[in-house]
Write a structure and sequence with these properties.
Keywords: Cell membrane, Membrane, Transmembrane, Transmembrane helix. By secondary structure, the protein is mainly alpha-helical. The protein has two domains: 176 residues, MFS general substrate transporter like domains (Growth Hormone, Chain: A, Up-down Bundle), CATH 1.20.1250; 209 residues, Growth Hormone, Chain: A (Up-down Bundle), CATH 1.20.1250. It is built from 17 helices and no strands. The relative contact order is 0.14.
Amino acid sequence: MPIGLIALALGGFGIGLTEFVIMGLLPDVANTFGVTEAAAGWLITGYALSVAVGAIGMTAAVARLPRKRVLVGLLGLFIAGNLLSAIAPTYELMLAGRVLAALCHGAFFGIGSVVAAAMVAPEKKGAAIAIMFTGLTVANVLGVPFGTFIGQSFGWRATFWAISAIGVVALLGILILVPDAGRGSATARLRDEFAAFRSTQVVLSLLVTILGFGGMFGAFTYIAYVLTEVSGFATTTVPWLLVLFGVGLFIGNLIGGKAADRNLDGTLLTLLVALTAVLAFFALTAGSQPATIVSLFLMGGFGFGTVPGLQMRVMNSAGDASTLVSGANIGAFNLGNALGAFAGGLTISAGFGYTSPIWVGAGITALAVVVMVIARYSSNQRPTVAPLASLASLAKTELEPQR
């Protein structure tokens, strides 16, 4: 694989850190600015909403520009946002820094996916996209503990200085290692990029992304309550269990990318069916600690294993006008997160217990399976499902030490 993919992954790592790191810093940030916990929470909510807006808005604004130059500019915006967060004298400026950094999130991963796919042979696109998203999965694992450690040792502002430094290194890496990847689309017209959304396959692919991720995050959003109140784990154990979930994300992302190159729709169907089954199993056995550990790992693996394939499918469906829909799919991931969290919260508020969001997640993921089957049929291809044995064989190959 081209070494430039590592530079893209490093950029993804820095952006992922910015998204997740604030969770461990909220109490200190709230104390510094003298705001309530709810107001501090907008540093998370505002970021997520800005990602959804920027995924389409920013991508549309730069669709006709040279892609490498755009990636460099987006990282410059990311660095500026984190520097503003690091020096912000007021809560309002801190929030502005978060929004500024978030605007580049969707566009970076969307355009970065197009660039990563263009750097390799057609049969390796899924693996290339997976490598770029590896940065995000590692950030998911390390984000909160990294931020908490730096914040406790040197103050929360030091965390954002460190992320800014990571952004600078990633920017230099892209400048040096990533080849020129041409301009937006072959047509170089924004209206052609928007016209791609008239494709049935693009719409169905985006819907699968929303539902597939909505199902996983519907279950994951309230996972701490499940682990402590239902499974009976000590509160101090939760961070380590979340690391286990993150390891599942990391492994699933890499294997899912390789599998998608072999059989795109079959891999997505298999992973979504498996995720539905794992969520149902998790809901039924959440009272068992060993079963919970297995479920948590598999939920991360099957859930994030869909990411490279989902990103590749929406890009393939758009043809030459893939830049904007690629960014929109990043927004769809975040929309799915919000959908799952909202639906899960409703069931808890209704008194159905802490395992109810897991059941909701299983139901939402089952809907993703239905939409994926429809997408497969309507694309005039035979609706086969890649056997789990094939994925298991690929997983064994990927995880075996190279001789």
